[in-house]
Design brief:
Elements (H helix, E strand, L loop, with lengths): L5 E2 L5 E2 L18 H16 L7 H18 L29 H16 L4 H22 L5 H19 L63 H13 L4 H9 L10 H17 L3 H29 L4 H8 L20 H17 L5 E3 L10 E3 L2 H14 L5 H23 L2
Antiparallel strand pairs: 1-2, 3-4
Helix pairs in contact: 1-3, 1-4, 1-8, 1-9, 2-3, 2-5, 2-9, 3-4, 3-5, 7-12, 8-9, 8-11, 9-11, 9-13, 11-12, 11-13, 12-13
């Protein structure tokens, strides 16, 4: 596996090697095990979660990434706080005067506090979070052996989390489930088989994590609706319909691999990309700084891209393929391979968020980084190998065509939109 140097904020480099710390060694010598273990636990918690709208997981990862990064920030003078670029007012705590902190302990308590907040409804999840936090508290006590005050570090990490949590409460997400009335023929309407109401139509109004991160990312208007055979819209739908009738086993496998429905079987779309990050961290044998930087970039990029995508969906209200094919192409019995989620067609969410995710991971691990995604080995799916994060992002978008839930132009628009968001996020973070 190719080893690539990390570009942090501002542009600095850390080698990707992992050593056992000797009390006061710099953070760049501290392993990424803590970050990977917390990602893996969060993925398990997500699979057991209920009553959480799918897009809300983007918030959980993004805000947790901010808390993790800020908990470590003062531990290395090459790290810069991102507080100045955050949207809205946040009051981060000051370091306790005259105290020498063990920053991995602060990071541990910060992540634990964030996840307890997001997943407090499930008692078994909270118990798992408490348990992992204590594992690392015990480990850190043994590692520092009196070199630093672990109690102060734990308190500092929890204060960071409290600040981030309070800031998160004002992002508009609790008001996102606004009333929605379908606009009539030619526009989105609830889809078979469940005919579920529109999913959080106001999510596009949410505050972004970074100031100005989605400016200029809205895609152009989609192809105008038409029922006329031979029209551009009809031909677009017919392309999907024809593909659906002759799907190869490989195309079906791709659609199912990136289905990512929040049903307890899959990790969700956001969790899938964090599963990729966990695997790459493990392969790279990274230090905690690189892992935290990757977590931050990926979480923010996913969060911003889904807000941008929801703005497009509820601006254009494009009709979904299953509705068009059943009602306007004369195939009322037609079904998509995977279930159509309850929100408008354009732009394709998976394509948008996956393109932004690929861009974020490239900004840390480099272009043309080959890897094999084992996210769903546990449910009997074959792993998929990619030549780059960009290629994986493209595949995730294309899977929606084979799944029968997105027209190809929606996927292409989402891919472009996601890359724009990823590029914007990287530019803002590099400016610090």
């Amino acid at each position: 596996m190719k080893k690539i140097l990390l570009f942090l904020l501002p542009v600095v480099m850390f080698s990707c090697k992992k050593n056992t710390p000797k009390h006061d060694q710099p953070l760049e010598n501290y392993s990424s095990d803590l970050v990977k273990d917390w990602i893996d636990l969060q993925l398990k918690v997500i699979k057991n979660a209920t009553g959480i709208t799918h897009v809300a997981y983007s918030r959980h990862f993004a805000y947790t990434g901010v808390a993790l990064y800020e908990a470590l920030e003062k531990g290395d003078n090459r790290f810069n706080s991102i507080a100045a670029q955050l949207n809205g007012s946040i009051n981060l705590p000051s370091l306790p005067p005259g105290k020498k902190l063990f920053y991995p302990a602060a990071a541990n308590s910060a992540i634990a506090a964030m996840l307890r907040f997001f997943y407090s409804a499930n008692a078994s999840s909270v118990q798992s979070i408490d348990s992992l936090e204590q594992v690392y508290i015990n480990r850190h006590k043994a590692e520092i052996a009196g070199y630093a005050d672990i109690t102060e570090a734990l308190t500092y990490g929890r204060q960071i989390a409290t600040s981030v949590i309070e800031w998160s409460k004002h992002d508009g997400s609790t008001e996102a489930n606004i009333p929605y009335t379908p606009l009539g023929e030619g526009y989105w309407e609830p889809t078979a088989p469940g005919f579920v109401a529109a999913n959080v139509p106001g999510w596009g109004n949410n505050r972004t994590i970074l100031k100005g991160s989605i400016l200029g990312t809205m895609p152009p208007a989609p192809i105008a609706f038409s029922k006329v055979p031979g029209s551009a819209f009809y031909n677009m739908a017919k392309e999907l319909f024809d593909i659906s009738l002759a799907l190869t086993p490989e195309q079906k496998a791709l659609a199912n691999f990136w289905d990512d429905a929040p049903n307890g079987k899959y990790l969700t779309a956001f969790g899938h990309w964090f599963s990729v990050l966990s695997q790459v961290i493990d392969m790279e044998n990274c230090n905690i700084l690189k892992a935290a930087d990757a977590y931050l970039r990926l979480g923010i990029s996913l969060h911003e891209s889904i807000i941008s995508c929801w703005q497009a969906k509820y601006t254009y209200h494009q009709i979904r393929p299953i509705t068009y094919i059943q009602k306007h192409m004369g195939h009322p019995e037609w079904k998509s391979l995977i279930t159509t989620p309850p929100h408008p067609e354009y732009s394709a969410a998976h394509a948008t968020l996956s393109a932004s995710a690929g861009y974020a991971l490239e900004s840390v691990f480099g272009k043309n980084y080959s890897f094999t995604d084992h996210s769903y080995d546990g449910i009997g799916m074959s792993p998929r190998t990619y030549s780059s994060f960009e290629a994986a992002g493209y595949d995730a978008g294309l899977s929606r065509l084979y799944g029968g839930i997105h027209y190809k132009p929606s996927i292409e628009a989402g891919n472009t939109q996601g890359k724009k968001v990823g590029k914007s996020v990287e530019k803002i973070l590099k400016s610090l």
